[in-house]
Design a protein that fits this description.
mainly alpha; 3-stranded antiparallel β-sheet; 3 strands; 10 helices
Length: 243
């Protein structure tokens, strides 16, 4: 990690630096680190590092161990299951709400992120594509007006990235992932909140299934069934709202 200097927004930049070091694997899962060592690497005091670690602990990325330091947590298949269930139950209704109040500027922003995803996919640049993917999801939810929810869901995505697992190039291509987002945006542009929510749910459910399969979890395993239950639950709720 590079020293950050003494500019404004130090706490936010320290948090982002530590978060990215975890996601990239620079801070190794299972290994212990000290606040002092991290602060020295970043060239800052212990206070912003401690605050960053508290936030990352709440997001499930690290754990404080008294008298020992900070452990970078490893992620299990069970963790993946729980994350995708949470994303379905929280992200999909938020997207439905967001599309119902979304204006032209928000749609234009989504289009920009999608084109950045497509450009990166065509170059084979997975890292850049996934950053644009992340921006797309955040921008999709932003009009709903719940900043904490957006941050929480973004943190769930970080936990998956920290595991270092991706479906790209294994279960599907980068362009396959772009196409799933293209369907979401197409429904949003038409103003169909329910169809947008359904396309997003299908994307999240599909991603969860593929990742679990890559972890050796079979089709009849309870982890996959939990994700299916969450998707079906959302469908039932949407149907009841129209009855």
């Amino acid at each position: 990690m590079e020293p950050l200097g003494n500019e404004e927004s130090l706490n936010a930049r320290v948090h982002e630096a530590v978060r990215m070091a975890i996601v990239s694997g620079e801070l190794v899962p299972g290994r212990l680190y000290s606040v002092i060592d991290l602060a020295n690497q970043l060239g800052v005091s212990r206070t912003p590092v401690r605050e960053a670690v508290i936030r990352l602990s709440a997001a499930g990325m690290v754990r404080f161990e008294r008298g020992r330091g900070i452990r970078i947590l490893e992620i299990t298949a069970k963790d993946l299951e729980e994350i995708f269930v949470l994303r379905l139950l929280l992200e999909v209704p938020a997207a439905r709400r967001a599309v119902s109040v979304m204006g032209p500027d928000h749609l234009a922003t989504l289009g920009t992120h999608l084109e950045a995803m497509r450009s990166a996919a065509l170059r084979g640049d997975e890292r850049s594509m996934m950053e644009s993917d992340r921006s797309f999801h955040c921008a999709l939810l932003a009009p709903a007006g719940n900043v904490r929810l957006v941050e929480f869901i973004d943190g769930l995505r970080d936990i998956v990235l920290k595991r270092g697992k991706s479906t790209a190039g294994q279960s599907r291509t980068l362009l396959d992932i772009v196409d799933e987002h293209d369907r979401v945006l197409g429904h949003a542009e038409s103003g169909d909140a329910d169809a947008t929510a359904s396309a997003l749910a299908a994307h999240i459910q599909h991603t969860g299934h593929l990742l679990l399969l890559q972890e050796g979890v079979g089709e009849t395993d309870g982890s996959r069934l939990s994700i299916d239950w969450a998707a079906e639950h959302l469908g039932s709720l949407a149907a009841s709202e129209h009855d």
